[in-house]
Amino acid sequence: MKWPARKFTVTALVVWLLAMAGPVRAEETAEEWLARLGPALNMTTYRGVMAYTRGDQVSAMRVAHRYQNGHVEERLVQLDGASGEFVRKGAEVICVLPDRGRVQLEPVMPSGPFAEAFANRLVPDNPWYRPELLGDDRVAGYPAKVLALNARDSRRYSYRLWLEYQSGLLLKSHVRSASGEVLESFQFTDLEITDTLPDSEFEVRGNGREIAALLASESGEPAVKPMPSGWQLGWMPEGFVPAAVPRVGRGPAMAFSDGLSAFSVFVEPVGGLNMPTGASRIGATTAYMHRLVANDEVYLVTVVGEIPPETAMQVAQSVTVGDTASVGVVQP
């Protein structure tokens, strides 16, 4: 008389396990999964808490994201350390800075869902990375597909991505060295993917000095600026081409990208200042500074980007200065 009940229990257990494993769908290629990531970044509505690890630095943030009437709205609140809040409505971004210190948006989330340029650059046919499906996993309670973007040489880093099964939303990511070391990681620790969020989720609530700015475009692809005159690169990794110049306060610069990884080059006269040289790295970001003497003038060449230290060093040491009078002058 006990057998039917036992049969029902086993059947229920099997059904529950299948449900926990996620929906059954036709197997997609790694390239097809990558193609879903860009639209999912903008068009998925969600809220949650994320953790971002960069070297030995760990940050926790609360995020809300809504796609409504063709526009993206986001709110990001830093949960530890100095408080900071960022609210985006379309192309307008409002930053609420804390009383002490300053929180900058770009360094906070280079690998996460707010890094719009990151997802936009994940083109499925990038020749410098080999996409590979690694299997299934779960992140923050959601079934995920795990992908690897393996660098085809040692001049750049590899990536590992966890994409939510239904929407394709990025739930977790790693930046990895050639040896497999995880240099940076991002992941949701709590997440709710939903159809809608109330307007109150996107109101500025923090106290502090507000700074408003406009994004160059909602696509995250600012225009490429011309090469600064007076200096040139003698070498760069294969596949890197001129890209958008970063917005920084160090003067004219030039940026290069292979479609996923990127680095910037700064060349500045330093006069008699004794500036530090060599490499430093935080997470996946390398800064390499090289002292260059040309025509009796001393210059500091700085290479900053998500590239290995050996690559940054070779780029910096290949810089030559021709017309010293025009260093830092951007060609028309």
TrEMBL record:
Keywords carried by this UniProt record: Periplasm, Signal
Protein name: Sigma E regulatory protein, MucB/RseB
Annotated MucB/RseB C-terminal domain residues: 228-319
Domain of life from the UniProt record: Bacteria
Biological process terms in GO annotation: regulation of polysaccharide biosynthetic process
Domain MucB/RseB N-terminal: 30-203
Cross-referenced CDD domains: RseB
Family classification: Belongs to the RseB family.
InterPro entries: MucB/RseB_C (IPR033436), MucB/RseB_C_sf (IPR038484), MucB/RseB_N (IPR033434), MucB_RseB (IPR005588)
Cellular component GO terms held in the UniProt record: outer membrane-bounded periplasmic space
Intracellular or extracellular location(s): Periplasm
Presence of keyword Membrane: no
Pfam families assigned: MucB_RseB, MucB_RseB_C
UniProt signal peptide: 1-26
One function term, GO molecular function aspect: antisigma factor binding
Keyword Signal (UniProt): yes
Broad class of the protein's primary localization: periplasm
